[in-house]
Design goal:
Strand content: 15-25%
CATH topology: Alpha-Beta Plaits
Number of helices: 9
Pfam family, one: RVT_1
CATH superfamily: Reverse transcriptase/Diguanylate cyclase domain
Organism: Austropuccinia psidii MF-1
Number of domains: 1
InterPro entries: DNA/RNA_pol_sf, Retrovirus_Pol_polyprotein, Rev_trsase/Diguanyl_cyclase, RT_dom
Shape: globular
Number of strands: 13
Protein name: Reverse transcriptase domain-containing protein
Structural class: alpha+beta
Radius of gyration: 24 Å
Order of helices and strands: EHHEEEHHEEEHHEEHEEEEHH
Largest sheet: 5 strands, mixed
CATH architecture: 2-Layer Sandwich
Helix content: 25-40%
CATH class: Alpha Beta
Length: 303
């Protein structure tokens, strides 16, 4: 329970109360042995705007890979198989749709993602409304205590419906694999997740102490007693629907917190300058100077 980040402004008594609360709700948190569980009654589906036979664009070969990327890819596939995120497609199964995968490297760390761009092109869009960031931030600012809870790779919490699984097949050098849980990069993934949250937590959202922007989940309240009460209620609900929270990415009892590029607190909200540092470094435009220079040079240009 010491993995989550706790505000330094909490008293010793408040820290003890929070520690007891988190321990009592320990089944809500992911572990190395069980990072995800299938959320009850919320299978992810997909509808295409084309009929069979599918166009060649939906059956793509694997991308060329370096030996280093192949090694990283094999480790990712092994981990996904271990946690039942994917399964290997058998030899006698018909394969109509395959997508290549991309292994991206950043500071010697690799990440794997399926190239679902062609699938997204033929996917019927889900128009379920996503909350506006400004409204979410305004709600959060009307609080003293703010806690942020986050899920580990939120998309993987959603089990893919059996009917749609054949659309989520990836092709790598070691075979064809089918996603059993929602992969990253799918067109309607944010809409599906937002709908699921609204269906699971309708009362909590209507009471406005619980704020969700896609996978950013915030609990806010004016008093510590009410805050811990609401937090306990939320974690209990999360446990009942078999959702898992990633404790290492959680923040508890803060007076000020960063959320989707904003710094929120009971004071006036502001932009997180670390997120817009590159923009702030851009020099101011010098249009007036150029216009003045052009006017001065016009007589010479006419001559």
């Amino acid at each position: 329970m010491n993995e989550g980040e706790v505000s330094l402004h909490l008293t010793e008594t408040q820290e003890d109360e929070l520690s007891t609360l988190l321990y009592d709700q320990k089944e809500s948190f992911s572990t190395d042995k069980e990072p995800w569980r299938g959320i009850i009654c919320h299978e992810a589906d997909i509808i295409l705007n084309i009929e069979r036979p599918h166009p060649p664009l939906l059956r793509r070969p694997a991308y060329p890979e370096s030996p280093k990327s192949r090694e990283a890819l094999e480790l990712y596939i092994k981990e996904l198989l271990k946690f039942c995120v994917v399964r290997k497609v058998c030899l006698n199964e018909e394969v109509e749709v395959t997508k290549p995968v991309i292994v991206a490297w950043n500071n010697r760390k690799s990440s794997m993602v399926g190239d679902f761009r062609s699938l997204n092109t033929y996917t019927v869009p889900d128009r379920y409304p996503i909350p506006k960031i400004k409204i979410a931030v305004t709600h959060i600012s009307q609080a003293v205590y703010i806690s942020n809870i986050d899920s580990l790779k939120g998309s993987h919490h959603n089990v893919v419906s059996p009917r749609a699984r054949n659309h989520f097949r990836i092709l790598v050098h070691c075979g064809v694999y089918e996603y059993l849980r929602m992969p990253f990069g799918i067109k309607n993934s944010p809409s599906h997740f937002q709908r699921m949250i609204h269906e699971i937590f309708p009362e909590e959202l209507s009471e406005e102490w619980f704020v969700v922007y896609i996978d950013d989940t915030i609990v806010r309240y004016m008093t510590w007693e009410e805050h811990t009460c609401r937090l306990s209620r939320l974690l209990g609900k999360i446990q009942s629907v078999k959702m898992k929270i990633y404790l290492k990415k959680c923040h508890f009892g803060f007076l000020k917190l960063k959320l989707v590029g904003h710094v929120v607190s009971c004071l006036p909200n502001g932009i997180d300058k670390n997120k817009v540092a590159e923009v702030l470094l851009i020099l101011s435009p010098i249009v007036k100077y150029l216009f003045s220079l052009l006017c001065k040079s016009m007589p010479y240009m006419i001559k």
